[in-house]
Amino acid sequence: MEDLMQMSNEQLWALFPILLEPYEPAWQEWYEQEAEQIRRAVGSENVLRISHIGSTSVPGLLAKPTVDILLEISEQTQLEEMRAALERTGYLYAPQPQKPAPHMMFMKGYTLQGFAQKVFHLHIRYLADQDELYFRDYLRAHPEAAAEYAALKQQLAQRFRHDRDAYTDAKGAFVAKTTQLARAAFPGRYLPQKASSRR
């Protein structure tokens, strides 16, 4: 795993290209199983809310077969202890200098031979009114928006197959517009006082 961290972005993008697949119901099962493993690893007392986000959380949506999980924690959580616990379960910490703690990202399922059968991205933040939850809910509730997003992703995947940063950046305008619509449609849905431990 350490060898992966020593690779350049270009080397990583060549090994892990943008690959889109039709929606697979098993992705929800992957999330449920992994969420339980995360709870056990970090302690349920540190999990204020855990959510399935990203394209694999939207039934019917074309997606990279990578399950994105958002873990929201309290400000009392010991970050280094949590990091060590996650690394013991096979997660690789991916530093994000532009996003200071507790914005932490972990990955599982990346190998020197390419993707493993199951791939996860774990995003960690303090509990807040998170954009990703609104974006997900809007796509679930509006199939026409999900179809537009799928078409955009197909176009961008062909253009940026080996450039993940460019692929993500090019989706930014659509994501921002849709998130704004979602916040108007679902005002205050994910305010911290409404948090439940799983979404």
Descriptive account of the structure:
This protein is of the alpha+beta class and 199 residues long. It has a single domain (2-194), classed as Beta Polymerase, domain 2, CATH 3.30.460.10. The protein is 44% helix and 18% strand. The protein has a five-stranded mixed sheet with strand order 1-2-5-4-3. Strand 4 and strand 5 (114-126) form a beta hairpin. Helix 5 crosses helix 6. The longest helix has 17 residues, at 26-42. The model has no long low-confidence stretch (mean pLDDT 92).
Just give the CATH class.
Alpha Beta
Radius of gyration: 17 Å
Overall, the morphology is globular
Under the CATH scheme, the architecture is 2-Layer Sandwich
Summing up helix and strand content along with how strands pair, one would put the structural category as alpha+beta
Q: How would you write the strand order of the largest sheet?
A: 1-2-5-4-3
Number of domains: 1
The helix fraction, in percent, is 40-55%
What would CATH call the homologous superfamily? Answer: Beta Polymerase, domain 2
Low-confidence stretches: none
Could you tell me the number of beta strands? 5
Give the biggest sheet: 5 strands, mixed
Tally of alpha and pi helices: 8
Span between N and C termini?
31 Å
CATH fold group: Beta Polymerase, domain 2
Roughly what fraction of the amino acids lie in strands?
A: 15-25%
Spell the H/E element sequence. Answer: HHHEEHEEEHHHH
Mean pLDDT: 92
